[in-house]
Amino acid sequence: xxVTDDRPAAEIGKDRRRKEDRRLITGSSRYTDNxxxxxxxxxxxxxxxxxxxxxxxxxxxxxxQASNVVAVYTAADLDESAGVLINAxxxxxxxxxxxxxPLPADRVSFAGEIVAVVVARSxxxxxxxxxxVDVDYDELPAALDLxxxxxxxxxxxxxxxTNKSALWIxxxxxxxxxxxxxxxxxxxxxxxxxxEREFRQNRLIPAFMEPRSVVVDPTGEQLxxxxxxxxxxxxxxxxxxxxxxxxxxxxxxxxxxxxxxxxKLQVTPEEWLAWWIARQLHKPVKFTETxxxxxxxxxxxxxxxxxxxxxxxxxGKVTGLKVELTADLGSYVAxxxxxxxxxxxxxxxxxxxxxxxxxACQTVLTNKTWTDAYRGAGRPEATFAIExxxxxxxxxxxxxxxxxxxxxxxxxxxxxxxxxAGLEYDSGNYEAATASAKEFFGYDELRAEQARRRxxxxxxxxxxxxxxxxxxxxxxxxxxLGSLDYGAGGWEHASVRMLATGKVEVVTGTSAHGQGHETAxxxxxxxxxxxxxxxxxxxxxxxxxxxxxxDTYGSRSLVVGGEALVRAxxxxxxxxxxxxxxxxxxxxxxxxxxxxRFGVKGTDAGLSIQEVAGAVFSAHNxxxxxxxxxxxxxxxxxxxxxxxxxxxxxxxxxxxxxGQIKMRKYTxxxxxxxxxxxLIVEGQVHGGLAQGIAQALFEDAVFDERGTLVSxxxxxxxxxxxADLISFDAHHAxxxxxxxxxxxxxxxEAGTIASTPAVVNAVLDAVRQFGVKDIVMPCSPAxxxxxxxxxxxxxxxxxxxxxxx
Amino acid sequence: MIPxxxxxxxxxxxxxxxxxxxxxxxxxxxxxxxxxxLPVLRLRLNAPEFVIDLGKIDRxxxxxxxxxxxxxxxxxxxxxxxxxxxVAQHAALISKAVATVADAQVRNRGTFGGALAHAxxxxxxxxxxxxxxxxxxxxxxxxxTRTVDAADFFVDLFETAIGEDELLTEIRVPKHxxxxxxxxxxxxxAQQWSIVxxxxxxxxxxxxxxxxxxxxxxxGSTPLRATAVEQALQGKPATEDAIREAVGAVADGxxxxxxxxxxxxxxxxxAQVLTRRAVLTAAGG
Lengths: 805, 285
Known about the structure:
The structure holds two protein chains of two kinds.
Chain A: H1 21-25, E1 41-47, E2 53-59, H2 61-65, E3 69-74, E4 107-108, E5 114-120, H3 123-130, E6 134-139, H4 146-150, E7 164-171, H5 172-175, H6 181-191, E8 193-204, E9 213-217, E10 223-227, H7 232-243, E11 250-253, H8 269-281, E12 285-288, H9 291-297, E13 301-312, E14 318-330, H10 339-345, E15 357-365, H11 379-397, H12 401-408, E16 417-418, E17 424-425, H13 430-441, H14 443-455, E18 460-470, H15 478-483, E19 492-498, E20 504-508, H16 517-529, E21 536-539, H17 557-584, E22 591-594, E23 597-600, E24 606-608, H18 609-618, E25 632-636, E26 645-655, E27 661-671, H19 678-697, E28 729-733, H20 750-767, H21 781-795
Parallel strand pairs in A: 1-12, 10-11, 14-15, 20-21, 27-28
Antiparallel strand pairs in A: 1-5, 2-4, 2-6, 3-5, 7-15, 8-13, 9-10, 9-12, 13-14, 16-17, 18-26, 19-20, 19-25, 22-23, 23-24, 26-27
Chain B: E1 7-9, H1 14-24, E2 28-31, H2 37-42, E3 50-53, E4 63-66, E5 69-73, H3 78-82, H4 85-90, H5 92-98, H6 104-109, H7 112-118, H8 126-131, E6 135-139, E7 145-149, H9 150-153, E8 154-156, E9 159-160, E10 167-174, E11 180-186, E12 196-205, E13 208-217, E14 224-225, H10 227-233, H11 240-246, H12 264-282
Parallel strand pairs in B: 1-3, 2-3
Antiparallel strand pairs in B: 4-5, 5-10, 6-7, 6-10, 8-9, 11-12, 12-13, 13-14
């Protein structure tokens, strides 16, 4: 499909400043914690300090006596109507998952799990009384180390008998999409090259700016929950499915939400407890977590071991890839926790033509914070693995890393291309993005400088890292989700309402939490209907307004939700056409719609769509039998995923005396198809890069040997700010997507997916000369220095330890 | 992040503050800029019954000259110290170090004296004060005032020579006019506490180091003066090789911490590299 009319795209492609930013940056926004209701009570959570322990007694008597305390609840008080937290994506029929109640009955399974809730008339009184709840624990051995956990050395949930939750396998020979990977590997062992690596995906904390917050109002016929969530529709469904309240009695509102990055794609014990307690007490309640609570109890991301075997010919043609993944679920299987690594299964082959592929993922329960989606969700891990492997293979063969990639990637004339993982890539041009990126980056000059620094033994060495990534986004074709045993579809809904005054209300089922939908969607509608940008109002995030929807994650809002919007707008035009014809006393066939105006072919006569909307409202003079409405809705289910791609180049200076890394240059050329608002896209790319770079260099959720989160505050969990990053050199190439009308591709996760391997490849490129083959992420100065020292020691024969760190 | 309840007073004079301290004793905590105390209260790591705010005592703020010394009021904010022309002229090491404290918001609220009294070994104000031989003026009960040398001020982790019923009022810094200065701070992200940092002030004439002052941040439970290195540098040419040799033993006898940013041995290695760089830069190299 292509855009069929030829009028100028006045709004699409324009650098509009975000209309939502005025309220967001001047403090006139409405976050959940800003909501104050009459008689509202406050909750404070009592959390376990132990990773794994039996609860032997809870004494709430002192807390109950405290001033302004209304109630204290423990698991013993809960009944069926408290519900459970659901896993919506059981990746295999035999997946093992512990029941996840809002409060555990008698055993805590991660440090930070809630064991009691205090309800008081003020947040301070609740907090004070929470300190008075006396919980007796018998500490149990905890399953903490992922590799030990998969060996069932200590059980995270003894009742399950194992920590192994599910084993999910894809094999190209079995699927008929490619050959036998074992054959490819053994052929390469005898006459070719085999690269074997084991990479660690560090555990990350989403660290959204607004901590999670929930308010529940149980008064009135419908119960209302406000939540700082990405997924109000999913929360509503899950409340209905597990707490016995009919869906039609539940209203969930995500008001202004301050970031999520996947971290608010969850149904949480805090929400469920607030829901249940409000219903018990018939009073509104609020809970807002502290930053410390957010870091220990909101879900984490990544945390995998990746065992990888890449087979290739001596000429650098990849012949097979085998991936053996161990993924840490944490203590519970979160809403899509098991599915996150499975999303990666389709991306290890990336932009390359790999003839044989085998992927196996073992998900594992441990006594750590649960894990789930975090920006990229499965795809950054896959991209990291393959882009590291390709650079390592180039190094092994003494080939230029670009030459090796080009030898293996899908050429632009080969699209659409069906990959070894079974996906059909609709469009792309890796040659163009790469050529452009090399040019902007000044690749040859930087290589020359690198050589000079090497020759002069400069203490500061330069490294250049490459990542030619692609990803699958725009979740998702419902049929594909069904085939993967996901619990819901992937469609999206939109409606367009033409108001009497000529204003346009657009309702989307996506749920923005910082993305700028109000602006970008206004631009689409302004273009499509030919109305002023200012006349478009975008409504979202309230299930009583946005009655259908599947929310925002997986870079889906524009490519799926935006397409629903386009289709709804086109229906409005079609419905308005006979009205215009009637009012203009012309035949419908002679009516043309262009730039917001219905005109009669060959005449000057015409009416604006806003005038038609006014006429429909008054309904004084409509065609016989026509209903007085030109409002329309559309539900769009994509037929395919969406495949943005790009070439990212990173240059770092490594201070070999300290291990300190200084980023010198970061250039990216992303192909995200047609762009609605370049300013928003740039913001998404920059923010995405920052988070991907953070995984490579800074962020790490570290637990001690008893399972306590050591990096539990921003003193130790290092989130980079603008002061730590350079000005990114971000550009675009464009091959429009063929699977949506606007030709757009997702951009929300691209920067995060692409940047991590580019950075680590750059660091390794600087220090490979010292015999370094790998540095575990985050590449801290201490690790980089140790790797260099160990590599040098091996070089000079003064130590026998390996160079790997 | 709600602290436990406490009573609060903001006296207008040092005498009133001291009287409150005497009255409440152990139950009281002093708040200066609050950049260390407030997080502790909000995390409920401490729950004092009484908080005495020094923010209303005007005479504790500002920088003045007094003969050969520069006098910095304890309640002068980091940003005021960092931007003060007298400090830049006579104690450039302090200007440079203080400018690296945390971020702009913290520097605008946090105070020089508050940070010294808090005595976090990873903080950036202790080492330059120690290097320049600052003296600490401490007010006690009954109008008593005593002065403590920098060498005696820092006692241990978060512990100084200030008594329980005393207040730090001024820091007297001997003028180091015309000295080169550099604070070499090693962090992973900009607003982090120092992993290791080195404060160096150097008096160099004709390419030769005539005197040097060097102190280390976060290489032990207190800031550490590198006296042996100072002596080794004296009379040496201000060249990289000479300095490298003179500072080689800077980490000897130190006891740095091990944490997520690196172990003690790595910190000892860093101290060497950073001291060389700090001295070389301070010497104009």
